[in-house]
Amino acid sequence: MQTINKFQLKTVADNFLVMASLSAVFGLAACQQEGPAEKAGQKIDKAVTHAEQKIDRASQKAGDKMDDAKQSVKDKAEIAEEYIDDAMITLKVKAALSNDNILKASHIVVTTVNGVVTLSGTVDSEQSLGRAMEDADSQEHVKSVQSKLTVNANPRSN
Q1: CA-based nearest residue to 113, from 134, 133, 92, 143
Q2: Cα separation, 110 vs 94, whole angstroms
Q3: Are the C-beta atoms of 115 and 143 separated by less than 8 Å?
Q4: Chain segment 44-103, per-residue pLDDT in tens
Q5: Separation of alpha carbons 89 and 140, rounded Å
Q6: Half-sphere exposure at residue 131, Cβ-oriented, CA atoms within 13 angstroms
Q7: Does pTM top 0.85 for this prediction?
Q8: Which domains does the chain have, with CATH numbers?
Q9: How would you class 18 by CB atoms within 10 Å of its CB: exposed for 0-12, middle for 13-18, buried for 19 or more?
């Protein structure tokens, strides 16, 4: 009887070993190397990641360029505003000088840079020179007045 039990035990052990081996073979078969579909999927994933990174970098560069462009427009707008302000000041000073009966016969050139008015040309007296300075200085937004005016005491000799 012991022989039968040993025989049965050996058969059970052999069957167990066969089952374990088959399980290992099937398990390994299920873990076979990646096929072409898996490799293609990985390549697509890498390409998508790479494209997203490029898009992010391009977006950042575009944003930086937009910021630079906005600043440039602001700077140019400020320059244009200053130029327009200077042109308006010049216009108002010229109007004031031409409406002044004492200065009508004078030859005065008016220029304005950053609110600083420069008067150049000739006037017939010191009184006219002072009057021209007062007329220019009384205009809105004039920061200061510089005179390059000369007094020509004999206006008929021109």
Answers
A1: 143
A2: 7
A3: yes
A4: 888 888 888 888 888 888 888 888 888 988 888 888 778 778 899 999 999 999 999 988
A5: 7
A6: 19
A7: no
A8: 87-157 (3.30.1340.30)
A9: exposed
